[in-house]
């Protein structure tokens, strides 16, 4: 199997590089994406709030996990949008579909938060 010429390091160096790339990704998303900043704010509110409810550890973990899932989906959605815009800024049905599907994925993630929190808190 031929490896990508962009893949270089192994071991600890690779892990450190990957951590740096991840931090750069978080930074880019926070600076450039209002939706990501809004989701960070939602997480800053909901995750600590989950500790004030009388729920099991498993339920609390699920409440936190679905909040973090929305951040993951937004990062992927933003990445899709960036790639589509990098390829071309022209309006094209496939570009619109890609962006709309990323948005739909985020809608599903937010729906999951609502459903999970409602089921747990309302019993």
CATH architecture label: Orthogonal Bundle
Biggest sheet architecture: none
Number of helices: 4
Radius of gyration: 18 Å
Distance between the termini: 52 Å
The SSE string, one letter per element, is: HHHH
What overall geometry do the principal axes of the alpha carbons give?
Answer: globular
CATH topology: Helix Hairpins
Number of domains as seen in the coordinates: 1
Helical fraction: over 70%
| Poorly predicted parts | none
**Averaged pLDDT:** 94
CATH class call: Mainly Alpha
Beta-strand content bin: under 5%
Q: What class do helices, strands and sheet pairing give? A: mainly alpha
The count of β-strands is 0
Main attributes of the structure:
123 residues; mainly alpha; Helix Hairpins; 4 helices; globular
Summarize the structure.
With 123 residues, this protein is mostly helical. The protein has four helices and no strands.
Description:
The chain is mainly α. Helices cover 80% and strands 0% of the residues. It contains 4 helices and no strands. The termini are far apart. The mean pLDDT is 94.
Give the secondary structure arrangement, pairings included:
Elements: H1 11-32, H2 34-49, H3 57-87, H4 93-122
Transmembrane segments: 36-55, 62-84, 104-122
Protein name: Diacylglycerol kinase
Cofactor: Mg(2+)
């Amino acid at each position: 199997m031929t490896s990508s010429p962009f893949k270089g390091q192994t071991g600890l160096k690779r892990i450190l590089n990957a951590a740096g790339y991840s931090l750069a990704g978080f930074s880019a998303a926070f600076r450039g994406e209002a939706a990501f900043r809004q989701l960070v704010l939602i997480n800053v509110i909901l995750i600590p709030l989950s500790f004030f409810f009388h729920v099991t550890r498993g339920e609390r973990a699920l409440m936190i996990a679905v909040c973090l899932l929305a951040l993951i989906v937004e990062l992927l959605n933003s990445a899709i949008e960036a790639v589509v815009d990098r390829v071309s800024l022209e309006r094209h049905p496939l570009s619109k579909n890609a962006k709309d599907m990323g948005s739909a994925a985020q809608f599903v993630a937010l729906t999951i938060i609502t459903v999970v929190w409602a089921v747990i808190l309302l019993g």
